[in-house]
Amino acid sequence: MQLTQKHVEYWHKNLAVTGILLFIWFVVTFVASFYARELNSVVILGFPLGFYMGAQGSLVVYVLIIWYYARYMNKLDQEYGVHEGEDD
């Protein structure tokens, strides 16, 4: 099967958004944990930021990443005519 220019553009946009979201995931998961002691000097709602990110903050970011990716890919699928769901 020969890939058309449209397929290549679709794939590049998919890779770009995936790379950005993986970078955000990496920062939230590893960088925030690495700097937890420094983050604890910031207090949000009575809890140190390091504790907040470990207990709840990172989970919220993960859900937002999933939500954004699904929304973005649905729009991209419709834009390139490969949408598999019901027509809205």
What does this structure look like?
- The chain is mainly α and 88 residues long.
- It has one domain (5-79).
- It has 3 helices and 2 strands, in the order ααββα.
- Strands 1-2 form a two-stranded antiparallel sheet.
- A hairpin with a 2-residue loop joins β1 (43-44) and β2 (47-48).
- The longest helix is centred in the C-terminal third of the chain and has 31 residues, at 49-79.
- The model has no long low-confidence stretch (mean pLDDT 88).
Class of secondary structure makeup: mainly alpha
User: Treating each run of at least 4 consecutive H or I residues as one helix, how many helices?
Assistant: 3
The termini sit apart by 30 Å
The major beta sheet can be summarized as: 2 strands, antiparallel
On the 0 to 100 scale, the average pLDDT is: 88
* Secondary-structure element order, N to C: HHEEH
Strand percentage lies at under 5%
**Approximate shape:** elongated
**How many β strands by DSSP?**
2
Low-confidence sequence ranges: none
Major sheet strand order: 1-2
Q: Estimate percent helicity.
A: over 70%
Number of domain units: 1
Rounded radius of gyration (Å):
18 Å
Please supply descriptive tags for the structure shown above.
88 residues; 3 helices; 2 strands; 5% strand; elongated; two-stranded antiparallel ribbon; mainly alpha; single chain
